[in-house]
Write a structure and sequence with these properties.
homohexamer; alpha+beta; two-stranded parallel ribbon; 24% strand; isomerase (chains A, B, C, D, E, F); Tautomerase/MIF_sf (chains A, B, C, D, E, F); 4-oxalocrotonate tautomerase family protein (chains A, B, C, D, E, F)
Chain lengths: 79, 79, 79, 79, 79, 79
């Protein structure tokens, strides 16, 4: 009876969207539940999946808020 | 000094409400803190309780988003 | 389908024990599951409870490891 | 940069083992990271996966420790 | 590659604000990432920080929702 | 009343040690509690810090267990 928690930033996969879509969430739920079935033989109905979307301001990486860190990395990649 | 995290779907207990009410949250906080006092003798003032309400789209069960899984189970129960 | 996570320090409730006993864990599981049934009408079989025991060294309070913080408070209480 | 936390009971998939094997852990890590790549286009190197094995005594279901709940269900299935 | 999760109540540090500001979040991210670098020599770019703001209703302390517990303590401090 | 959870791999900072030392844990607890005091004015005694050490096998990065991913990166850096 696994519990899988998936934390992602709240942003879209295309420029016109600002969050993960319902279809994408369903695909994540299906995919990770299947992994637990395939690897550990856990029946689908015993797995809970919780998706947590985290605002970009609330996610830090490299000692910076994500947006600033991405800019820094993009600038470094160019130089 | 326990920490109790309670994750529930964001939905009401009656059809006219779409989330857990403030009274219900207070009752959960009171109840689980009391369990820790009764069983482990932890003083109420040393217990933190955090309630996380999770959107139905973000909670998966049976490899599906919750709403779809419930429909599937309800259909199976009828047949 | 709630998930309740209970984090407590790994220590006994009596001097001769160094961890939470199996009976105490069962009582915690029973108690918090019952709270979710009573308050939100969640069936017992849809609630998962996960108990995490945390070594005393790994739990901080008051900016100190727990054991040191307790000593500090006990000393302050005497003075 | 997702974080995926997988909580499972500490037990083997065959009677001769008492925990998840290193190969199974590697397969879980590979599988869930791939789901995030496929669905949200997250590069593998930005995904962290944390597997938490939970002792059977510390996992509750149906208001009971897991082992007792499984026995109860098995008995109910027979009757 | 540490993951640091910071859970705080959703409220401002001054009366005119009702949540943690973007500047405060950036300072938390910078500060805790630096601690991991200083103490464990973890490079900044390997540390993820996730800040979770919890509504006051959803945080319990002393067996009560936070706002009620604070009132109770303030009243006790006066008497 | 913040809760700070610090997840790190269970390994030493020098070759002769296989886990985080008690002194390092105390420094982490002190450091992150101080950040919350400095930035959000949270009193030290209201902050809980929980350190979770995760076995290397149980931490995935780049779709691989950590040790394999580090080897892959080290090999790539040389070429």
């Amino acid at each position: 009876m696994p519990i899988v928690t998936v934390q992602v930033t709240r942003e879209g996969t295309t420029p016109d969207r600002s969050s993960v879509s319902a279809e994408e969430k369903a695909a994540i739920i299906k995919g990770v539940s299947q992994v637990l079935l395939d690897v550990l033989n856990k029946p689908l109905e015993s797995t809970y999946v919780v998706i947590e979307e985290v605002d970009l301001d609330n996610w830090g990486w490299g000692g910076l808020p994500t947006v600033q860190y991405r800019k820094q990395r993009a600038a470094a990649a160019k130089s």
